[in-house]
Design a protein that fits this description.
The structure is a homodimer of 213-residue chains. With 213 residues, chain A is an alpha/beta fold. Chain A has a single domain, classed as Dihydrofolate Reductase, subunit A. Chain A is built from six helices and eleven strands. Chain A has a nine-stranded mixed β-sheet with strand order 5-6-4-3-7-1-8-11-10. A two-stranded antiparallel ribbon of chain A has the order 2-9. The first copy, chain A, is globular. The two termini of chain A are 15 Å apart. Chains A and B meet through strand 10 of A and strand 10 of B. Chains A, B: Pfam families: RibD_C.
Chain lengths: 213, 213
C-alpha cells in the first residue's frame, strides 16, 4: 500500500519549521541554514549537489531515507519559490536550477494553476486542490509508489490535520528561532495517532519518527 | 564557584513547559501528567514519594542529578500553589504536604511577601525580588552551594533572559500541548550562549543539557 511520508523536516525547539522573512536571497528566512545544517553535512546532501564526501553517521541514516520508494512529491508553493499571488515571473523554475534533485513528478499546491513545467528528470504540476484531492492527483502521476510531502510548514501541517501522513520524520534542532512558521499549531494531541521513536545525533539534533498506529 | 542549575524541566514539542488551566485539581493544567510521566517512572521520583523501585536507565540518570550539590531552590509562586494575588488561604503549605521533598531553604518569588513557612526539613521564604536579587538572597541562605531554579515556566524564562543560568536540563517530551505557558518566548538565539548535549531515552523523551560557554 502506498504510504505518505515526510522526511528531514526540521523544527526548532520553539516549533518553527521555517524562519520569518523568506525572500529570494533568504529561502529559509532569518533561520538561514540553521535548521538544515545537520542535513547539509550529510553524504546524501553532498550527492544531491553532485559532490563527493559528507557524513555517514546518524544524520545520514535519516537523510538517506528521503528517496527510496518515493515516486512523487507534493510541495507547497512557498517551497517552490518566494513569489506570492498570480505568477508574474515565468522564468522562475524553482530554487534548484535546470536539474532539480527530485527526479520524479512534483505537485505544487497553488491557488494559481498554470501549465506544467518540465525540467531534466522532474516535471512540476501546478494544482489548486485540498490535501486529499492533491494526494489523489499525485498517486495518479505515480501509481503504487510512496508519496513524499516535501513541505513547507503549512503543507505538512495541512496533511497532518487531514490525518493523511503515515510516516513523519522530524528533526528537532536545538535552536530557538523566535519567529517564523509554526509546525504544531492546531495539532494538539497529534502524537496520539502515532508511535514515536526518538534518536539523538552527535550533531545535537534529535530525530523523531512518527509512524501511524 | 556556586552554579545556578535547572533540572528535569519538561517541555512539549511546541515549547510549552506547563499546560493551560492550572488549578487545585490540576496542578499541571490540561497537560495533566503528560509532561512528567518520564520522571514519575524513575527511582528518584519513587524515593521522593517514600516508595521503592522505579526505572534506573537514561531518565533516572538525569532525574537523579536534581539534588546533589544543591543547597537552596528558587521557585515561582505558581509552583508553590494555584492562588493568585494577595494570600487568602494561610493554611496552604504548598502541593507537597508536611514534608516537602526539597530539604533545603526555598525562595518563593511573589509580589505578596509574607512570613517564612517552616516545615519538616524545608523552609519557604517569600520574596518580592527580580532574578538577580533573588539569587543573592538564595545564596545568602546557603553559601557555597549550587542554586536550583525550580520553575515554573516564567521563573526559568526570567532567569534565562537575565543570563543567570549555568546548567539547564530540558526534557523534550514528544507531545503537542497546544496551549499553556511557552518556555522559549523572548529567548531567540539563547542557544548561542551554551554548549548543548543531546541524549535520547527509550521513553521517547530527549534530554538536552545546556552548559554555559
Amino acid at each position: 500500500m502506498s504510504k505518505v511520508r515526510v522526511h528531514n523536516f526540521a523544527v526548532s525547539l520553539d516549533g518553527y519549521g521555517a524562519g520569518a522573512d523568506q525572500s529570494m536571497e533568504q529561502p529559509f528566512g532569518h533561520a538561514d541554514g540553521r535548521l538544515m545544517s545537520w542535513f547539509m553535512g550529510t553524504r546524501s546532501f553532498h550527492a544531491m549537489q553532485g559532490q563527493e564526501g559528507g557524513s555517514t553517521g546518524v544524520d545520514e541514516s535519516f537523510a538517506s531515507a528521503w528517496g527510496p520508494g518515493i515516486g512523487v512529491e507534493i510541495m507547497g508553493r512557498n517551497k517552490f519559490g518566494p513569489q506570492r499571488g498570480p505568477w508574474t515571473d515565468d522564468d522562475w523554475i524553482g530554487w534548484w536550477g535546470d536539474e532539480p534533485p527530485f527526479h520524479t513528478p512534483v505537485v505544487v499546491l497553488t491557488h494559481h494553476p498554470r501549465e506544467p513545467l518540465a525540467l531534466e528528470g522532474t516535471t512540476f504540476h501546478f494544482v489548486d486542490a485540498a490535501p486529499r484531492e492533491a494526494l489523489a492527483e499525485a498517486r495518479a502521476l505515480a501509481p503504487d509508489t510512496d508519496v513524499r510531502i516535501g513541505g513547507g510548514v503549512e503543507t505538512v501541517r495541512e496533511f497532518l490535520e487531514a490525518d493523511l501522513i503515515d510516516h513523519l520524520h522530524v528533526a528537532v534542532v536545538p535552536i530557538v528561532l523566535g519567529r517564523g512558521e509554526q509546525l504544531w499549531t492546531g495539532l494538539e494531541r497529534v502524537e496520539e495517532r502515532f508511535d514515536i521513536e526518538t534518536t539523538a545525533s552527535p550533531s545535537g539534533v534529535t530525530h523523531l519518527v512518527f509512524t501511524r498506529k
